[in-house]
Specification:
5% helix; mainly beta; CarboxyPept-like_regulatory; single chain; Lipid/polyisoprenoid-bd_YceI; elongated; YceI family protein; TTHA0802/YceI-like_sf
């Protein structure tokens, strides 16, 4: 079975539409091809294409369109579902049948703009700790990954009439770090790492919201940890807002991620390795899974 992207040859008629493809077919296989266009009718490079077998529900092949908007694959005979997605655009799905020895005509797919999520109401939003998680993943030196989280924190989001002027502030109790191992957690709290006696808090304050398109934003700001402040960017996906929760209050949600380098915050892992201390590696993946409540005079207090 041969799967994947193959070379293509196309010819265009007077209408400009792709009329044929030519691919080498492995014995017993067929082929399909797609030309993906953006809402302006231009080739959509980088769109994600996933082809799933309808009988087993297993992914047969996946990939991205080339710079000309093309995706071509050879597949065993059978029935398949094809999903095409791109950031900020509505997904396209269609079913197709692959016949051995047959290369299907190229199908032209035009993606349409996705329905835009309504931005949060202007005002102040408060993190709801029971429905918010601040997690991290670090490479255990020479071994597997260490997963951890902070259990005590507070945060607020001030949504401005112009979203780009909005602000986020988060304060984390550094001593609340937990990885499921008491010995490791105590070491992470020690002077070798976070030094929570001298630096009890980790703070993030945003300076600017930058819209990347669709539901994607970058939150530029300053992260202060271990007595050092650095500029960071949080890659953020806005997940929408809804009335719900304790008393059907207005809520919004977002997922933010960043990659941190511990040496940027004077956490010197090399010196610890030299002393035979192998705890976590130099790079940490940080994730904030946030649910916030709109603050009014009767906003409920989250339970502890």
């Amino acid at each position: 079975m041969a799967l994947g992207l193959l070379r293509r040859r196309r010819s265009r008629g007077a209408s400009g539409a792709a009329s044929s493809i030519s691919v080498p077919l492995p014995p017993g296989a067929g082929a399909c091809g797609f030309e993906v266009l953006d809402p302006m009718g231009q080739p959509m490079g980088g769109a994600e294409v996933t082809v799933t077998a309808l009988d087993s529900h297993r992914i047969a092949t996946r990939g991205a369109t080339d710079p000309h908007g093309y995706f071509i694959a050879t597949l065993p005979p059978g029935s398949y579902s094809v999903m095409i997605v791109a950031e900020g655009l509505s997904p396209a799905r269609e079913n197709l049948d692959i016949v051995a020895g047959v290369a299907r005509p190229t199908a032209q797919v035009a993606l349409q703009p996705a329905r835009q999520l309504e931005l949060p109401t202007a005002g102040t939003w408060l993190f709801d700790p029971p429905h918010t998680a601040i997690r991290f993943i670090a490479k255990h030196v020479g071994m597997a990954h260490v997963h951890g989280r902070f259990t005590r924190f507070q945060g607020s989001i001030r949504i401005a009439p112009n979203m780009a002027d909005s602000q986020v502030a988060v304060r984390i109790d550094a001593s609340s770090i937990t990885t499921g191992n008491n010995t490791r957690d105590n070491h992470l709290r020690s002077a070798d790492f976070l030094d929570v006696e001298r630096y009890p808090y980790i703070d993030f304050t945003s300076t600017r919201f930058a819209h990347l398109g669709g539901s994607k934003w970058t939150l530029h700001g300053t992260l202060s940890m271990h007595g050092t402040s650095r500029s960071v960017g949080l890659d953020t996906t806005y997940l929408g807002s809804i009335n719900g929760g304790y008393e059907q209050e207005l809520r919004c949600a977002a997922l933010a991620k960043a990659e941190l380098h511990r040496e940027d915050f004077t956490l010197n892992w090399r010196s610890m390795l030299a002393r035979g201390i192998a705890v976590v590696g130099p790079t940490v993946q940080l994730e904030l899974d946030v649910q916030a409540m709109y603050r009014t005079h009767d906003t409920p207090t989250p339970p502890q």
